[in-house]
Amino acid sequence: xxxxxxxxxxxxxxxxxxxxxxxxxxxxxxxxxxxxxxxxxxxxxxxxxxxxxxxxxxxxxxxxxxxxxxxxxxxxxxxxxxxxxxxxxxxxxxxxxxxxxxxxxxxxxxxxxxxxxxxxxxxxxxxxxxxxxxxxxxxxxxxxxxxxxxxxxxxxxxxxxxxxxxxxxxxxxxxxxxxxxxxxxxxxxxxxxxxxxxxxxxxxxxxxxxxxxxxxxxxxxxxxxxxxxxxxxxxxxxxxxxxxxxxxxxxxxxxxxxxxxxxxxxxxxxxxxxxxxxxxxxxxxxxxxxxxxxxxxxxxxxxxxxxxxxxxxxxxxxxxxxxxxxxxxxxxxxxxxxxxxxxxxxxxxxxxxxxxxxxxxxxxxxxxxxxxxxxxxxxxxxxxxxxxxxxxxxxxxxxxxxxxxxxxxxxxxxxxxxxxxxxxxxxxxxxxxxxxxxxxxxxxxxxxxxxxxxxxxxxxxxxxxxxxxxxxxxxxxxxxxxxxxxxxxxxxxx
Length: 494
Hints:
There is one protein chain. Helix content is 45%, strand content 12%. By secondary structure, it is α+β, with helices and mostly antiparallel strands. The protein folds into three domains: 7-113, no CATH class; 143-257, no CATH class; 270-436, no CATH class. It has a five-stranded antiparallel sheet with strand order 1-2-4-5-3, with helices on one face. Strands 6-7-9-10-8 form a five-stranded antiparallel sheet, sandwiched between helices. The chain has a two-stranded antiparallel ribbon with strand order 11-12. β6 and β7 (172-179) form a beta hairpin. α4 crosses α7 (230-237), α9 (273-302) packs antiparallel against α13 (376-391) and α11 (327-347) packs antiparallel against α12 (350-370). The longest helix is centred in the middle third of the chain and has 30 residues, at 273-302.
């Protein structure tokens, strides 16, 4: 809706839109300049800098000779960031973001002054992606602070930030960030297309946005990486990927990704390549253990006892002699109990969370063994599976694996290794069909000199001359063939 030249009509429209008679948060102040021009401004108390409004907007207008024949109020206001707006509804939306709308009688536009000033959490260490090497700064709920943290790392004029508002009622502000000289234009267009076509009254943050723009909503595996680390986000941006940062959420969404990205450590290339490769081997092994260990165990116990060494089989039989439940029921009950302990440790206050983990995992587990309710071997299998799941760096992936694990337990307990094999084929097929903005989840970096590598091997930094061709970046090369030029110069001197 366009502005009216009549100031009374514009004031009444803003008052009606914000329910001025009931809403005590909205501040609308009408005043007249020394030259006789009627003006009004509107902002939300608590979200705008009232001292700045008084000093640099109202005082600037009231102390300057504001001519009656000229209504360009933007030239009078003494504020750093001012924009003009011809649509009164868009100006009202800016008020909801913490800005101040200033209008002068007779004009067909207003000034939108960025006066945001509200309490926010300070930058702190990431809670879910702790590292030994690397940055200890994490995103905050303030979208401006999160964007600044990335720009402090990537000091490039080609780093683009575009804003998209989603959510009909709350108007969640999302920032799409990418490098204009690297990222594929089709990928940027697709991401913005999906964001602009999200319909819903309430979008709280990155978690809901992720579900609304991902390729497959039925898969247990995430197709978008969620990270709270600015350095990790910057690394993926320089590889040709896109990041989405949502207001009120201390996480960035990275796309497109693959399974190898989900299993990659937040430290990434901060480690020496030998240590990084060893860590990747451990994480890949943990991924397999967490998914299939419990199912393989129950399949061996129920259907394939001949594959178990005689001594170990005797021990298992002795420990199960007094157990009143079947092996399958016992394992499922213990897995559910372990999930209860995990959830309790996450939801209760941190001061008692560790105590619940110790009491639930050790004392109650040992008490159940002493009481003859569960066997010690089953408790060991459940514990190993739980520890392996904790090694997986991505929380969404780890959560999906915990659900998938119950499927393998049921298949192994009812069909043996035949069921386990069918489950593996089904899981691989599901991953192969799943895509992340057109990229298959099972793809890895192509070529011997590309960034990263596969799920197991991490290439040395000096051998990562090229970016992954899968992302189709505008520039494939990220460093020269000889990045350690000093070593060549030393050899030449010799």
